[in-house]
Amino acid sequence: MPGLRTAADQLTQRTAKLPATELRAPEHVIGRRTEECIQAGVLYGTAEAVDGIIRRIRAEWPGGRRPKVVATGGLATVVAPLTTSIEETDPDLTLRGLRLAAGHLGLTW
User: Fold this and answer.
1) CB-count burial class (<10 Å; 0-12, 13-18, 19+) for 39
2) Third-level CATH fold of 4-104
3) Distance CA 8, CA 18 (A)
4) Following CA atoms 29, 48, 8, 30 in sequence, which dihedral angle do they give, to the nearest 10 degrees?
5) Domain ranges in the chain?
6) Per-residue pLDDT of the chain (109 residues; tens, 9 = 90+)
7) Is 69:87 a contact under the CB 8 Å cutoff?
8) How far apart are CA 99 and CA 108, in angstroms?
9) What one-character DSSP code corresponds to residue 67?
10) Is 70 helix (H, G, I), strand (E, B) or coil?
11) Integer angstrom CA distances of residue 89 from 35, 77, 92
12) What's the CA gap between 4 and 76, in Å, rounded?
């Protein structure tokens, strides 16, 4: 699915009059201004999509164990509090994983 910034940018770039908005959760899901409605749609829509995908992954997860859900990336800390399934955020998880993989290949950086 597209990331938060991509979804928000597409709304403003592909429409004539929708304003660019800061990606932060609005106080209410039902917005009172256009900016709040965009924020609610993008952020809460993403949070629900994340929860839905994680629910489906857990239903298929083998061995009866429950996988730990860690959000990563620049906007993970914005989305995680809006979900019911993200347990932890780690903005550097991908970079640390690449470093570990490089180490296993004998590369250093």
Assistant:
1) buried
2) Nucleotidyltransferase; domain 5 (3.30.420)
3) 10
4) -10
5) 4-104
6) 667 777 777 777 777 677 777 888 888 999 998 889 888 988 999 999 999 999 999 999 999 888 999 998 878 899 999 999 999 999 889 888 899 899 989 987 6
7) yes
8) 8
9) -
10) strand
11) 26, 6, 9
12) 10
Residue with tokens 């004998």, as numbered in its chain: 106
Structure tokens at 22: 């800061």
Backbone torsions φ then ψ of 71, nearest 5 degrees? -90, 140
**Which residue has tokens 């489906």?**
56
- Residue 69 near residue 82 (C-beta atoms within 8 A): no
What token pair was written down for 92?
Answer: 């550097």
Residue 45 tokens, joined: 């829509």
What is the maximal distance between C-alpha atoms in the chain?
56
Q: What number of CA atoms fall less than 13 Å from residue 33's CA on the CB side?
A: 7
The rounded distance, in Å, linking the Cα atoms of 42 and 86 is 17
Do residues 29 and 47 make contact, with C-beta atoms less than 8 angstroms apart? no
